Every structure is written in structure tokens, then in C-alpha cells.
């Protein structure tokens, strides 16, 4: 610990832009470019985004202590942009599991988002594990550290904390700004600041792995603010996204299955998916059409309404008969 504190002392005494690492030194000018406009400029050189995957990291999710709301939020986010979310996995705070999962996802999907494990405690090992997955070192990202000092406040229970005095608390905070660094990639492509009032950067590893915190309000805000960086890489750069048409039918799934099988084969070449979802305990079920071509989906509405003996609706329960309780109060 003493040698670590001595190293921190030397680092903090250096001018802004000097960074301790076994990797080549990052210059102040290059690191300061890790914000919006420069990333937008380089977006044209990145691969298009068609598919996505989500990796939820945390023992607390697997242990039932915390309910994962980040993957559903990402699913809606991707749906709205026309990105196909192909996989969601939940894994423990285990280095081997993180390494295996992130390598596999990075190789298979265009846009990978991880959630969790980037805090100051001993079990927050996401940065170091993802660095190992791609044979990278961790490097202090000084712009993030400077923003942390400017935008965050010491906890009331740490009244003697000082940014310029080496301490276990400072060491813990620095864990959150030591990011995987690839000397073969441009500096501005490896960490993105998406909000002026947030010090947390989105670290980007191997070109497509985006490391986000697990705290839902931070995860959601960072992801929403990342959107302008993603839109130029979408197959539909106008960001029209994907459309979902809902049909409410009184028919059981087994009754509409033959028609839906024929319909699915017919619309598959147009990139449309057909879904059928039972609503247990209800008198009406749901059929869905999902695709990017809104005009084509609209052309199918009349046919599907006849085929499932149902109606196009905005909400699944739109045509549900009133419950017994509702009937009593309506007398």
C-alpha cells in the first residue's frame, strides 16, 4: 500500500495530462478530445451497428437483492433505434465469467453494453476484467479524474478527505477512472463524455464494448446521451427505429397458429417478425408484427385483422371486457 501511495503522490504532483502507466503516455491534448464532437467526427470510420448484446454484471442481481431494470431499458432503447438486441446475460462479479462473456459478445455483436461493477469497492472488477479480456492495461484517465474532482463532493462521513493527499479513500476513487487502454486505437474512441455535468465516461473497448455503471439513473442517462454517437452508424441514420403493431384477438393461440405460420413465411423476406403472446387469465390474446418498414406493416393490417379475427390496438388491454369489479361499480 505504501508504494501505491507514493506512486499516487508522484502522479498528483505532475502537471495535468501526465499519466502513470506501463503504456505509452497519453498527451493532454489527445485526452481532452474524448468528448462529443470528436467522436462524432470519427463515427464514419466505425463499423455499422445492426445487432446488440447486454451483459449485466453483479452478484446482487443473481442473488435477488437487486432487480435488473437496465436490460429492459436498453431493449427499448435499441428497439427505438432499429438495433436488434440479440442477447441479454446476467453474470457474477467473477473475472473468468466476465472475460469469457465479453470476448464472445464483442466478436458476435456490433454494439455491446455492460452494466455494473465499476465502483470503488473490492468486488467492482469490470474494468480490470475487460482489460484482461483484450490483453490491455488499465490507465488513469486524467480528464475523468479532473472532472471527478470538480463535479463530485466528498461524502459527509469523510470530512478529512483531500484530493491531494494519498489515502485509501483516494485509491478507491481512482479505481473508477482507471480505464482499459489500447495503444493501437485512437484516444478519443476509447472514452466518451456524453454530459457536461457528469464525470463518468463511457469506456469503449475493442471498438464495440461500452462499459456503463449499474446504477439505473446513471445507466439510463448515459445511454440516452450516447444516442447521437450511435445514430450515424445505424442502417437507418435518420433513426426511425423499429415499429410494433399490436392486434387483440379473442381466439386462442392454437386457433390462429396456422394463419400466423403462413403469414410469418410471407413477411420474413421483408424483415418482419410475427409474434403470438397468450395473456393468461384474460379473454383476449395478442399478436404482433415488428419491422422497420412502417408502410409495409400498415398494408398488412386489414389482412391480419381478418386472419386473427381481431383488431389493431394501441395497448394490449384496450379491448378487454370490464372485470367483475368494474362491472359492479358501473351499475
TrEMBL record:
GO BP, sorted A to Z: flavin-containing compound metabolic process
Domain MoaB/Mog: 53-233
SMART domains: MoCF_biosynth (SM00852)
One protein family per Pfam: MoCF_biosynth
Source organism, top-level taxon: Eukaryota
GO molecular function: FAD diphosphatase activity
Residue stretches in coiled coil: none
Protein name: MoaB/Mog domain-containing protein
